Description:
Layout: H1 8-22, E1 25-29, H2 36-49, E2 56-60, E3 73-75, E4 81-83, H3 84-87, E5 114-115, H4 126-129, E6 134-138, H5 139-142, H6 150-169, E7 175-179, H7 180-187, H8 191-204, E8 209-210, E9 213-214, E10 219-220, E11 226-227, E12 231-235, E13 240-244, H9 247-254, E14 262-266, H10 275-285, E15 294-298, H11 299-305, H12 315-333, E16 336-345, E17 348-358, H13 359-379, H14 387-391, H15 395-402, H16 405-410, H17 424-436, H18 438-441, H19 447-452
Parallel strand pairs: 1-2
Antiparallel strand pairs: 3-4, 5-14, 6-14, 7-13, 8-11, 9-10, 12-13, 15-17, 16-17
Helix pairs in contact: 7-8, 10-12
Amino acid sequence: MLSGDMTPEEFKQFQDNLREAIGNTYTVEVGKILTQEETENLIRYIRVVHNDPDATIQIIQPLEYEKPNFDFEIVAKNNQVISQRENLDSLSLDSQIEEESLASKESVELNELYISEYPTNENDKISKIYGENWIVLQNRLLNAISDLNQDERRFVIFLSPLVRKAVDMNPHQRNFTVVAKDFAKEYDIAEKHVYEKLKKISKSIHGKVFYYWNFRANKKANLKGVSWIGTAEYKDQEGMVEVSLLDEVIQMLTVFDKSNPFTKYERNHIANLGSHGIILFELISSCMHQLFKSKSYEIEFLREKFNCKDTYLPIAEFKRNVIDKAIKDVESNTPLRINYEQKKTGKRVTELLFSFYDSNVKKEQLEENMSVKNDAITTTEDKKVFGWQTKGLSDAQIKKIAVYQKEFIDANTSKMSPNDRRDYPEIFEDWKAKLKDPKQVSTFHKVQELLDRKKN
């Protein structure tokens, strides 16, 4: 029977039956190119978490492209021509690009500090989407390699909302003004020092370039650098710097859509960070939208990104003097909390796997969970307390639950790490000690239900 011949009730029943037969479809975005083993583990984990062994898992992985070294033209449907020389870098040619044909992203609730969103109406003004309190930049620029010092990096970040607002009003705007008093207020710099600081920045940032990074090849995408600024002139009598920016840089600060993935964060969070702190904060912020809060970076990329390719060569020194200090800086001045572990290829450390969370969001979640827990205690005070809740499970009770160990483990997947590759019997064996512990056994789900169940 075709759907057009069904009543609404029959069509709904048909969908339910189909879903039950083949499982739901889950779309997952990951931050790296997965190996076959990693893909299989992720699929297995999601099926276990959702108790849906027949689920279809669609995985969105970053795609990476080498920039063509020849001239070409793309003729759009509206007959507008994008030339390789003029606007090539506004196209999606980096590792963060998503292929829309794979699947649309499943809706995920994001926190308010770090968000990846796209304009839903082409006529919307940029300033209406992103207020002046937000720093917004394309991920290609965020991941780019450069040797900016703290003041120069602050200067570039300061331009983000300023350029966005100006270009919103005049798309052809290419000259911008940084006022000394505004810059001083932004970064809490004494007024008597800010003028000399801006004067120095206007000279030192001249000639500095950035290089896009090719994550697939794990190297700079092109040896031709892109200048941060076209010109910079410090006007002593007026207390300001006038800068002109290249089209490519302006695009990185104003063009945000699915073809140009971007990161957005509150500008006040980086006001007190050092250069390495800013770099780490931005790298982690670009991943905060992910369902699984972790991201792996190759050591080669990190050394280039933190401008430590030829310093702190022993990995222990690099971690201690760069990564650890950057984490301390970020955690002292922002809500982000960061941990990492090293990954080896043979005996050599080749990657750092970062895990992270927003402490503000986690605090709110804990308070909400505590509120729910207190409500539950209040409403169940008169309910029966079972012996195993105060004494722990006996060997006989554990043996009975073992009969339904697959169902029991599926009901308690929150106690497993995402990378747990063990089989059900091995996991259950590991949990036996916890089931005997009266302080831990009550945290497991479905205990009494399985104890009360009678074999068929």
